[in-house]
């Protein structure tokens, strides 16, 4: 692994100047200052990441009272749990006494979280149950010392969190994709596999890679054999329109081919991006498998293979790829300035049995392979971008339009966080 030195001379003034400069050329990549500065990274966490809706987990991963999972974002840890009434909670894994983590195991089942430091005990919903010898503490009110809550939204079995108490509401925007997403009945799906790829690159490089398919033809041979997204729209328009013509009849789902887009600066509220479209597979391919043949029982209400794939975005950092027989969630979260956790979750229909209805290795083959290929190119990209000799080139107007959209949101948000100099 190449270690990237990120020690740059930094100040808010320098950031302001770089932002002004970067905004002048929205159709090019941004200066490498934005990938190297610790000041920028902290500001991104404050202004973008912790204000955005982020996919946390699937309801089936915490099915019983007392079940919980931890999620790491940057240096932070968040607990997602289910209480005795079946309600789901999200809270910061930070003791309200002097700040220790109260839970270390990544997942499990508990009645309480006991802080390892001085033994304060929290209920599974985060409320403070007891604080040792607190009867002699003046005016101590246990009710005021529960674990700090994180905002939560559950949509079709998908749990989303937002660390900003004043975040814009997310369920409203998500309603716009209810029809196409509902077909997969994700609330009844099961997690077939989950894997985190820790990529040695700044989170924006990892996200930018996901936002464009210019690299698909060159970097993802297996993917490019099957998916029309590798080509310019006009070149594959006949494949996509033939697919959309048969979608409703073959799948039995009204509105499965619906397209909707309100992302980044166009989102209804900050950090509430919602997108969907259905794109095509080349002839002979029915799903994301090695040979194009089905991998698992059809999901939810879907009655047949139309040769299409549902493409979804939910929040700025979470995306889904939905084949008729399995779905994949992609989530990008920064770990440090120079490392990113890219998590993939594969879902199949709730009653599908591994080894009988699907082979897990076959199921995950394409996107595991594709993720390793991405890791390879992203880390090479990071090495070049971090060079003092790097100069950003132009975006491709069609293939890389989404990066340009992301950058506009990114630059605007950082700029808005700097008090005006006038
Ligand atoms: S830090 Fe948790 S009990 Fe003191
Ligand atoms: Fe890729």
Q: What does this entry look like structurally?
A:
With 422 residues, the chain is an alpha+beta fold. 27% of the residues lie in helices and 23% in strands. The protein has helices spanning 12-23, 33-36, 38-47, 171-175, 178-182, 203-211, 216-219, 221-226, 233-251, 360-385, 401-416; strands at 54-58, 67-73, 76-82, 88-92, 107-109, 112-114, 121-123, 128-130, 151-155, 158-162, 190-199, 260-262, 274-280, 308-314, 318-322, 327-336, 339-348. The strands form four sheets. It has a seven-stranded antiparallel sheet with strand order 11-17-16-15-14-13-12. Strand 3 and strand 4 form a beta hairpin. Helix 1 runs antiparallel to helix 11. The radius of gyration is 23 Å and the shape is globular. The two termini are 45 Å apart. Bound molecules: FE2/S2 (inorganic) cluster (FES) and fe (ii) ion. Fe (ii) ion binds at residues 209, 215, 219-220, 370, 374.
